[in-house]
Write a structure and sequence with these properties.
Keywords: Oxidoreductase. By secondary structure, this protein is of the alpha/beta class. The protein has a single domain, classed as Rossmann fold. It is 44% helix and 9% strand. It is built from eight helices and five strands; from the N terminus they run H-E-H-E-H-E-H-H-H-E-E-H-H. The chain has a five-stranded mixed β-sheet, with helices on both faces. Strand 2, helix 3 and strand 3 form a beta-alpha-beta unit. Helix 2 runs parallel beside helix 3 and helix 2 packs across helix 7. The longest helix has 23 residues. It is globular and about 45 Å long.
């Protein structure tokens, strides 16, 4: 293992990290977009570039990183991109007039963080559009739900002491250890039987057909909007 510094809250940090990776590693066989946050919308937190923090870290940071490393992944085929989403994507919405939460979030008073759910839906749409754009390149892309894993994802939540008591039965019976939660990620990253089956969604090391239908036009528009937000269109214009 070679630890390297990457702050997905900063697009500058993502670009610096990608530059270091491209400099030091001639081959990239697997990219796993696993990092994430769940920050309550009542905190009104933004990334260092001014984006709603759940959307900025969970989607935009990974979107930029993937695109910056994609040429090297294409040169290292067969290779894979694994996007860690969540079943909570089914509770998300993509409102292009409210990606930063300027208008607030529907369901903000409920237990589930609506901004987090939206970011997980963005992960799913990213995987769908990415799989189309890399078709025939020797790179496969998969999205997955790792399950309910015991980790520090909700470290920013306003958890009270009595919540731990109420939550204990759920933790004992339903939560997975980090090792258990990583199994589907490893399956998507290494299983030979998945080669050429790009764009699929997995849960419990098996293909899972999402309950909601994904509009390919929305996936395409999200890609284009994300390119503008992270400055990839500026990169293209500078190379022309």
């Amino acid at each position: 293992m070679i630890p390297m510094l990457l702050d997905l809250e900063s697009l500058e940090s993502v670009r610096r990290f990608a530059k270091e990776v491209l400099r030091d590693f001639p081959n990239i066989n697997v990219l796993i977009n696993n990092a994430g946050v769940s920050v309550p919308v009542c905190q009104h937190r933004k990334t260092k570039d001014g984006y709603e923090i759940n959307f900025g870290v969970n989607h935009l940071g990974h979107f930029l990183l993937t695109n910056l490393l994609l040429p090297r992944l294409k040169d290292s085929t067969s290779s894979r991109i694994v996007i860690v989403s969540s079943m909570l994507h089914e509770r998300g919405t993509i409102d292009f007039d409210n990606l930063n939460g300027e208008k607030g979030f529907a369901g903000a008073g409920r237990r589930m963080n609506p901004a987090y759910c939206n970011s997980k839906l963005a992960n799913m749409l990213f995987n769908i559009e990415l799989s189309k754009r890399i078709e025939g390149t020797g790179v496969d892309s998969f999205a997955l739900c790792p399950g309910f894993v015991y980790k520090n994802l909700f470290r920013y939540s306003n958890v009270k002491w009595y919540h731990y008591i109420l939550f204990l039965p759920v933790a004992l019976f339903f939560m997975r250890t980090p090792s258990q939660g990583a199994q589907t990620t490893l399956y998507c990253a290494t299983s030979e039987e998945l080669e050429g089956k790009s764009g699929l969604f997995f849960r419990n090391c098996n293909f899972y057909g999402p309950k909601m239908e994904f509009d390919p036009a929305v996936a395409k528009k999200l890609w284009e909007v994300s390119e503008n937000m992270v400055g990839l269109n500026n990169d293209k214009s500078e190379t022309m």
